[in-house]
Automatic annotation (TrEMBL):
Reactions it catalyzes: ATP + H2O = ADP + phosphate + H(+); Couples ATP hydrolysis with the unwinding of duplex DNA by translocating in the 3'-5' direction
Entry's family note: Belongs to the helicase family. UvrD subfamily.
Protein's name according to its UniProt entry: DNA 3'-5' helicase
InterPro entries: DExx_box_DNA_helicase_dom_sf, DNA_helicase_UvrD-like_C, DNA_helicase_UvrD/REP, P-loop_NTPase, UvrD-like_ATP-bd
Pfam families: UvrD-helicase (PF00580), UvrD_C (PF13361)
GO molecular function (one): ATP binding
Keyword Secreted in annotation: no
UniProt record, GO biological process: recombinational repair
EC id: 5.6.2.4
Keyword Nucleotide-binding: yes
C-alpha cells in the first residue's frame, strides 16, 4: 500500500488542477459540507478522500469508514466505484475493502444495526434476516393490524413526509404519534417478523439512544461520508446525528437537486447542519461532465445562477442557449420528437424521453408504436400500487426459492423468474398498468444477470438482490436495459443519465403543474402572459415554489451527457384553451436554438 507522499501524488495526478477537490481531499477539518452537483466529480473525489484517510490515519486500521446515502442506486454506485478504483488508488489489489469501508443507504444501515443489537429493544429483532420490510400502506399489514392501527401508521408516515423544518410544532407533531407507532410495531408487527421502512429508522434511532451502543459506533466509524444529503428526511437525520461524535463527518450533495420534498426531504437542511454543528462549507465549482461541451456547461451554470440570484433578477446578466421548438399541436410535437430521435439512436447513442407527468408522453408513445420502434417504458412511480406489489412478491419468491442456504444458483433465479411470469393476476394488474409488470420483470432479470456477473461473494450477491427488492429500487436499473430509448419521469431518472434527453410538453399548467406554482402564480399575479408563453416575475412570495420547480427542471436537463431538447405546443388543453409554453422557457437571457 502507498505511503502518504505516494498517495498524495496519485491524488494530485488524478484531480489535476481542480483546487476545490484537492482542498477537500487534503482538508483536516472534522465537519465539512460539500456542495457537489451532478457532473462535478463528486464520487471520484469521495473515493480519493477515503483512500487518503486509509493511508494517513493510523487509527483507521481498527475502525471503519461509513459511506451513507439516501438511495439504493447511489449506494450501489459507490460500492461499484470503490471496488474498482480504490484498490488501484491504494496500489493494493488485495486490500479487503469490507474491513475498511461500509457502504449503505439509511435503511440498510438500520437493518444491520438491528440485526446485531436489536434484541436489546425486542428479542425478535435478532431474526432480522427473515423479516418482511414493508411500507406503512402495504396490504401485508392488514393480516396483523386493525383499521385504527393502520391509521396510526399512515398518519405517522404523513407526518414524516410533511416535516418541513425544525420548528417546535413540526417536532411535536412527530412526537405525538411516535409512541403509538413504536408500540404497534414492537408488540404486534415485530413478533410476527414484519417491520416498516420507517420502523427500521425509528428502532435504530432508539437503539442508538443507548449510550453504550451510541459510543461504540461513534468510535467505530472514524469517518462518515453522506452522499445525496439534500434528500434526507427527519428519521434519517435523527439516525445520522446519533452517529456523530468526535468522528469526522462529511455531508455531500446539492441543495439545487432537492426534488424529494414530497417524501419528506427537509428544506434548508445544509444551512441547519452548518449552524447546528458548526460545519465548514466547501463548494465544487468545475463541471467535468461537460469539459468538452461548452453549451451544456453554460446551461448548467446558468440555471444554478438563478438560484443564487433570485432576489436580484432585474440585473441578472448570465446567458445560455437551449434547444427548443414550439408546435401547433400535440401531434406535431410528438411527430418531430420521434423523427429526431431516430437520427440520434442511429449513431449508437442512447436517449431518454423525460416528463413531468406520464400523460405528457402519450402521443410520443403512440408514434413510437406506430413505427414499431422499440423503447423501455419506465413510467411508474415508487408509490404505484403495482410497483410496490411487484417488489413485495418478487422478494417473497426469491427468499422462498433461495431457501435457508440463500442460494443464487442459475436454476434458483430461473425459478424466481418463471414464478413471477406466472403471477399475472387481474386483481393487481389491469390492461392500462400491465406495462409496469412487464417493465419490472425485465429489470428483475437484469438485476439477476448483473449480480451473477459481479466479482463478489455468493453472500454479497444474495444481499444485493435482497437489498434492491426490499428497498423497491428496480427502477434504478433503467440505465442497464438493452433498448436505446427509455421513457420515464424526471423523478424516476434521478441518478441516471443518457447521451440525449428529450423533454416534451414544457407548458404552463403541466410543467409547472396546475396544482402547484401555476395556481399560486396566477393567484398572486406573479406572471406576464404573452401569446405563446408565460413569463415569471420572481416575486419573493413565490421563491420556494419556483425553486422547487426549477430543481426538477435542472435535474431533467442534467440527465443528458451530450445534449437536451425541449418542446411545447399551443394545442388545446382539456378545457378547450390554447396551451402556452412554460415560464421555464422564458427565463431571462435564455436564448433558443431552433435549428436542430
Amino acid at each position: 500500500m502507498k505511503n502518504k507522499k505516494a498517495i498524495s501524488k496519485s491524488i494530485e495526478d488524478i484531480h489535476g488542477k481542480d483546487e476545490e477537490q484537492l482542498d477537500f481531499i487534503f482538508s483536516q477539518k472534522q465537519r465539512i459540507i460539500v456542495t457537489a452537483p451532478a457532473g462535478y466529480g463528486k464520487t471520484k473525489t469521495m473515493i480519493s478522500k477515503i483512500a487518503y484517510k486509509i493511508v494517513t490515519d493510523p487509527t483507521i486500521h481498527h475502525k471503519k469508514i461509513l459511506a451513507l446515502t439516501f438511495s439504493v442506486n447511489a449506494a450501489n454506485k459507490i460500492k461499484k466505484d470503490t471496488n474498482e478504483l480504490l484498490p488501484e488508488l491504494l496500489d493494493d489489489e488485495n486490500v479487503d475493502l469490507s474491513k475498511k469501508l461500509d457502504v449503505a443507504n439509511y435503511h440498510n444501515l438500520a437493518r444491520i444495526l438491528l440485526k446485531k443489537h436489536g434484541y436489546l429493544l425486542n428479542k425478535n429483532l435478532g431474526a432480522m434476516d427473515s423479516f418482511r420490510i414493508v411500507s406503512d400502506y402495504s396490504a401485508v399489514l392488514k393480516d396483523y393490524l386493525s383499521s385504527s392501527e393502520m391509521d396510526i401508521l399512515s398518519e405517522y408516515d404523513k407526518c414524516i413526509k410533511n416535516f418541513n423544518g425544525f420548528e417546535k410544532e413540526n417536532i411535536d407533531n412527530v412526537e405525538k404519534l411516535e409512541s403509538n407507532y413504536f408500540e404497534i410495531l414492537n408488540e404486534i408487527l415485530i413478533p410476527n417478523e414484519v417491520i416498516t421502512f420507517n420502523g427500521l429508522l425509528l428502532f435504530s434511532y432508539y437503539l442508538l439512544n443507548k449510550k453504550s451502543i451510541r459510543n461504540f459506533y461513534q468510535q467505530y466509524y472514524k469517518m462518515i461520508i453522506v452522499d445525496e444529503f439534500q434528500d434526507t428526511n427527519y428519521l434519517s437525520y435523527r439516525l445520522l446525528t446519533k452517529l456523530m461524535g468526535e468522528n469526522e463527518i462529511i455531508l455531500m450533495g446539492d441543495k439545487i437537486q432537492k426534488i424529494y420534498g414530497f417524501i419528506g426531504a427537509i428544506p434548508d437542511l445544509f444551512d441547519h447542519m452548518a449552524e447546528e454543528f458548526n460545519m465548514e462549507e466547501m463548494r465544487f465549482k468545475t463541471n467535468h461532465r461537460f469539459d468538452d461541451n461548452e453549451k451544456m456547461k453554460k446551461l448548467d451554470s446558468y440555471i444554478r445562477s438563478i438560484f443564487l440570484n433570485y432576489s436580484e433578477m432585474d440585473s441578472f446578466d448570465k446567458e445560455a442557449e437551449m434547444n427548443f421548438k414550439f408546435f401547433k399541436s400535440n401531434h406535431k410535437e410528438a411527430e418531430f420528437i420521434v423523427e429526431h430521435i431516430k437520427d440520434k439512436i442511429s449513431d449508437s447513442d442512447d436517449v431518454s424521453i423525460l416528463c413531468r407527468a406520464s400523460y405528457c408522453t402519450n402521443e410520443v408513445i403512440e408514434k413510437l408504436e406506430e413505427q414499431s420502434i422499440s423503447y423501455f417504458n419506465g413510467l411508474f412511480n415508487d408509490t404505484d400500487r403495482e410497483y410496490v406489489a411487484f417488489h413485495e412478491k418478487a422478494l417473497d419468491v426469491f427468499l422462498e426459492e433461495s431457501g435457508i442456504n440463500q442460494s443464487i444458483a442459475k436454476r434458483v433465479l430461473s425459478r424466481v423468474v418463471d414464478r413471477m411470469e406466472e403471477l399475472l393476476t387481474e386483481d393487481i394488474y389491469e390492461d392500462d398498468t400491465m406495462y409496469i409488470y412487464n417493465s419490472l420483470l425485465r429489470l428483475l432479470k437484469k438485476l439477476f444477470q448483473k449480480t451473477k456477473a459481479e466479482n463478489i461473494s455468493k453472500n454479497k450477491k444474495f444481499e444485493k438482490i435482497s437489498f434492491v427488492l426490499e428497498n423497491e429500487s428496480l427502477k434504478h436499473l433503467m440505465n442497464e436495459i438493452d433498448e436505446r430509448i427509455t421513457i420515464t419521469t424526471i423523478h424516476g431518472a434521478k441518478g441516471l443519465e443518457w447521451d440525449y434527453v428529450y423533454i416534451p410538453r414544457v407548458t404552463a399548467y403541466s410543467f409547472p403543474t396546475s396544482k402547484g406554482l401555476c395556481k399560486l402564480c396566477s393567484a398572486k399575479q406573479g406572471k406576464e402572459e404573452f401569446d405563446k408563453c408565460c413569463k415569471f416575475q420572481f416575486l419573493s412570495s413565490l421563491r420556494e415554489e419556483f425553486e422547487e420547480v426549477l430543481s426538477i427542471f435542472y435535474v431533467g436537463i442534467t440527465r443528458a451527457k451530450k445534449d437536451v431538447f425541449l418542446f411545447a405546443n399551443m394545442g388545446l388543453n382539456r378545457y378547450g384553451y390554447h396551451k402556452k409554453a412554460s415560464c421555464l422557457i422564458a427565463l431571462p437571457n435564455l436564448n433558443y436554438n431552433q435549428n436542430f
